[in-house]
Amino acid sequence: MGIEEQLPSGIALTSVENVLGLARKHSQFPVTMGLACCAIEMMAAGTPRFDMARFGLEVFRASPRHSDLMIISGRVSQKMAPIVRNVYDSMPEPKWVISMGACASSGGMFNNYAIVQGADHIVPVDVYLPGCPPRPEALIHAILTLREQIGKEPLGANREKIARAAEKAALEATPTHQMKGLLA
């Protein structure tokens, strides 16, 4: 009986996924994407009082090519939506998105034609952060939640397949203004 039969299948790949997952989990580089009032709370999270630097997130990158985490903070207008998507497409793989605030997550109190009713209609969102505006501590908690998800994600084609399926589902979702029932 060979060693292949004695070991469980995929043990080498599992070990590599664990090591690389740990490395990816602790090395996010956020891109600057402050769109409205939530951006003030996002900036406050980087100040010494809340100290995002202890998690290695002290520098927000101005270039999407150097970033792998997008924090969409604030309402996304219809005019800004293609720009947000362009920034997302410019980021290298793997990439993650946090939707910060009620406006970015669901349109908030702006249920009209000018505001996109959720950032998930533009880009696939990994973590939703509720609140109007959410506190800096909540943003730090959302980042830690995202890190737990990143540590458990599969590598390679599996990760891309999952991301593409989530993106397809988000883009095919019914817009809020077309929904019937309690929202009408």
From TrEMBL:
One of its GO biological process terms is: electron transport coupled proton transport
EC annotation from Swiss-Prot or TrEMBL: 7.1.1.-
Q: Which UniProt keywords apply?
A: 4Fe-4S, Cell membrane, Iron, Iron-sulfur, Membrane, Metal-binding, NAD, Quinone, Translocase, Transport
Q: What class of enzyme is it?
A: translocase
What is this enzyme's catalytic activity, as reactions? a quinone + NADH + 5 H(+)(in) = a quinol + NAD(+) + 4 H(+)(out)
The organism's place on the tree of life at top rank: Bacteria
- UniProt subcellular location: Cell membrane
Can the keyword NADP be found in this entry's annotation? Answer: no
Q: Boundaries of each NADH:ubiquinone oxidoreductase-like 20kDa subunit domain copy?
A: 37-145
MF annotations from Gene Ontology: 4 iron, 4 sulfur cluster binding; iron ion binding; NADH dehydrogenase (quinone) (non-electrogenic) activity; NADH dehydrogenase (ubiquinone) activity; quinone binding
GO cellular component, alphabetical, reads: plasma membrane; respiratory chain complex I
| Residues noted as binding [4Fe-4S] cluster in the record, renumbered to the chain | C37, C38, C103, C132
| Gene3D superfamilies for this protein | 3.40.50.12280
**Required cofactors, per record?**
[4Fe-4S] cluster
Primary residence: membrane
Q: How the protein assembles, per its UniProt entry?
A: NDH-1 is composed of 14 different subunits. Subunits NuoB, C, D, E, F, and G constitute the peripheral sector of the complex.
The similarity annotation says: Belongs to the complex I 20 kDa subunit family.
Kindly give the HAMAP family that the UniProt entry links to this protein: NDH1_NuoB
Q: Which PANTHER family match?
A: NADH DEHYDROGENASE (PTHR11995), NADH DEHYDROGENASE [UBIQUINONE] IRON-SULFUR PROTEIN 7, MITOCHONDRIAL (PTHR11995:SF14)
Job of this protein: NDH-1 shuttles electrons from NADH, via FMN and iron-sulfur (Fe-S) centers, to quinones in the respiratory chain. The immediate electron acceptor for the enzyme in this species is believed to be a menaquinone. Couples the redox reaction to proton translocation (for every two electrons transferred, four hydrogen ions are translocated across the cytoplasmic membrane), and thus conserves the redox energy in a proton gradient.
This one is known as: NADH-quinone oxidoreductase subunit B
Q: Which organism is it from?
A: Scrofimicrobium appendicitidis
Gene responsible for this protein: nuoB
